[in-house]
Model the fold of this input.
Amino acid sequence: MTTHGGFEPVFCTIVPPHVLDRLAQAEDPALAGPARRTLQRDAYERTQRRLTTVIGARAVAALADGRPQRTVHDARHGTDLPGHKVRGEGDKPGKDATVNRAYAGLGATFELFLQAYRRDSIDGNGLPLNATVHYDRDYNNAFWNGEQMVFGDGDGEIFLDFTIPIDVIGHELAHGVTQYTANLTYFGQPGALNESLSDVFGALIKQYTLGQTAAEADWLIGAGLLAPRVSGTALRSMKAPGTAYDDDVLGKDPQPATMDDFVRTGRDNGGVHINSGIPNHAFHLAATALGGHAWERAGQVWYDVLTGGELTQQALFADFAGLTVKTARERFGDGEELDAVAKAWEQVGVRTP
Done:
């Protein structure tokens, strides 16, 4: 476990606090109640994450042999982690679809990082991948707590089962990759980069699993997560930030697509889930300009920057952008990759050296 050099240890949830805050104010108790309980539970888990960083995480045995070590537990609607083991590596699928989806999502994440980037699990050294499903009751979130994945079942009113979108699983596990590499501070622009990198790799994991090209992909994060009553398609759109939802209860997606609309706020750790729309959009622009499979060129550049050792914990958008330009040139030369990356940042208003 790495220690965190920023404002606090990173506790990463897929649903942003500003969304739950909005729901918690709803007049309908069926909507407000689960949101309030989720916020309370997240606050508790955030404290536990801080304590884990102080006292150290449990040691885990890793094989580092290029094979996943997956274990899925069932919390049985309680909050004790990890819960009751229900499926281990190599076990056949059971009757619980949530367990099966979690197991498959862990495997898909492992596969993308191993096959595309030769990374053995999220720490690069065969770290076992553990997950807990059926966490709490009506819990409207999923999170990485520094040691494992946790999935709620949703309240059925606004959110459905959090194992449904494979990119949600990939997003949260990608926070682990960041934790073991650049360890970006979870506040302001570095925090937005932290969130964006998880969206990028979450999207790539979905595209890799589906065999999609950049042109074929929907570039949505959390598609299938919103209940039928919600006016929206997903939690975020990398293709068109700010358009994922526009709902009477949830409000309108606040993500900006360019620096012209950068949001300055003290909430959500300085808007980490909001301003991540800007680097998200830059990646989408670069990937679609290059075409083909996004994990092969654009994804390779982003991965190289994340793991290359030059990205500091306090990196700003311009710092990250500059490193992607440098890396694109070093890996691919002065060709279309360099041009696509440089133009993508220019289009979103982030200057590069």
Observations:
- The chain is about 40% helix and 10% strand.
